[in-house]
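[INFO] parsing input record for BspA family leucine-rich repeat surface protein
[DEBUG] input buffer:
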Amino acid sequence: MKDQNGEEYTAWDTSNVTNIGAMFQCASSFNQDISKWDTSNVTNMSGMFWHNYDDLENVKEMSFDQDLTNWNVSQVTKYTKFWNNKNIKWDKQPIFTK
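[DEBUG] output buffer:
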């Protein structure tokens, strides 16, 4: 999958990005490996994967299931509704400490 400029999402330089809130909100088909993104300067991840599932009537699992446990989220202060269903278990999300 590529962005509107034809670049792979995995190739994005995110080292200076501070806000990725709602970036993939309602993007039910997005499931790319973005685990290598540099998130060390990100402060806002609120709603990043909000409503990220295929079937709104029968929510059982998120469409996105990539491993983000190695993301540096030490600067993140806003991460409410990072993803949105308490019944879904996603054990590969970043570990927020603030």
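[INFO] The two ends are 32 Å apart (CA to CA).
[INFO] shutting down worker
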